[in-house]
Structure formats: C-alpha cells, structure tokens
Amino acid sequence: MCLHGSPATYRAFHTMFEPLTAAGFRLILPNLPGMGYTDIDKNKVFNFSHQHKVKLIEGLIKELKLQRIEMVIGHSLGGHLAGHVAANNDIFKSVGFLCGPGVTMHYKNWLVPNYLYLQHIKLVGLLLNFGVNIPIVGNVILYVVKVAYKQIGLMGKTPISNVYSIREASQMDFKQFHEDIKDLRKRKVPVLQIYCEDDEFIKPNISLEVGRILGMGEGNTIRYNPQGERCNLQGITDDQLHRVVVFEEGGHRPHWKWTKAVSHEIISMVKMLSNAQTMDTNINALSDQIISPSSNL
Q: Which residues, listed in sequence order, are joined to residue 97 by a DSSP beta bridge?
C-alpha cells in the first residue's frame, strides 16, 4: 500500500508501478480526499486531520477485505500516516518511510518555539481554507498559493489541492508519530527508511533522528553514490529487515531518479517477509502434525 504526501496523488508513485507489479506484487494506491481524484464529502466532514485520514485507510482495508499487507510505504507527509496505521494494525507486516517527516518540525524559523510555530501554521491553514470560498478573494488565494508552491518545487493536481495541503500540513501530529515509531520498534516491525542527503524539504538530520528512535544506525545503512550504485556492501545483506537507504542525490523524490534502486530495496524486503511467512506456516503445520494425537494410539 502506497500513501502519497500533500499536495500529491497516487501518481507520486508512478515510476514504481512497472517494477513492483512485474515482481508479482499487487499495489494499492489510495487517493486522499481533496487532492484531485477523490472529492471531499458534500458536508465537508473530512477535515484533513490525522485521525480522519487513518479512518479512511482503515475503512478502505475493510471494504477491500484485505487480510495481509506486506508493506505500507508513505512518501513525504504520507510517512506519518503509514507509521500510524502500521503501529496500530497487525495486517501491515512492514512499513516504509520514503523521505518522510520526523518527530519535530522540519521546515521552520528556529527562533520560534515549536508550539507557537504550529499554532501559526494552523491559523494560516484555517484562514486560507475559509477564504478560498469567498468570491474574488478565493481566486487570489488560489493564484498566490500556486505561485508560492511552484517556487519551492511543489504542485498539486488542482489549484485547490495546494490550499488543502496547507490545511493538512498544519495538522501534523509530531507527538503521535513519535509514539508510533517507538511502538514499531517495541513490536519489532520491519522498517525500510529511504531518504536523500540533498533533500531540501526533509533535511538528513530529521531522518537520522527517526532512524535513531527506531534503533537503526550505520550498521543498518545502505548508501548509494551519485551514480545510483551501492557503495557500502560490507555487512549489509538483502535479508536485513531493518534498513536505512541513503542516496547522496535524489532530492525529495529518489524513487523518480533512482527507480531501479528503490524498487530493489522494496522488493528484496517484501520477498524476505513473504519467505518468512511461508517458513512460519510450514513450521506451524509440522508442529500441528507432531503434537496432534494419533487415532492409532
């Protein structure tokens, strides 16, 4: 299951479609409301909060009658959502963080305390969400936000999705994410963390902190050079179920530039999980045969 960030849609993973499906995997790519493909409900109950997004994903799982999902991977803001559903639903057997945010603000004025900064962002999000529905004012807001996003390299499918994304970002729950990744570590859930050293949105120190909380260090780290080749193979194997993948270059979307390498890391981990499940099933079946009383005794 691939969870997109904001503003984005399932197309954020478009480079991964062919290699992952060719490897025999089924992909589930939800489009969250307001981002261009899924409309917000008429009564506008959906408010872009963390809690509402979680309910949508859990509802989708129930609707599709899914019993097991090998990996949920979240790109950018989708990382917080992926971490939470993986920490609270046994159906997910591993989690991937692709250039995901951390446990603290990643893009702010460091002279302002986190609490005050978050309150400021929330206020801006609410005002923009309200103002965009006012004639003329709304058009100005759509244009200004579109231009601002284009300047920093972001662009939603629709102008309104850019505004909605600010509302969504203003409701990031860093404290909850901190608890979620601590729970993932406690439960020993396999984790794949991928990030780039030149990411302008999520700086490396943010990703390093997440890795540290998850208990992953240099011994779990696979590094790729600017040519997209692994450059530290000593002690690192494809059967490692807690791994950090670091690209020197690739920005905020390494899966676009290094599709083959990112696909390899995902596929190798998911295959290991599948093999582990098969082994557990065979062992359990053998155990049942050994301990089951014979009718001849």
A: 74, 193
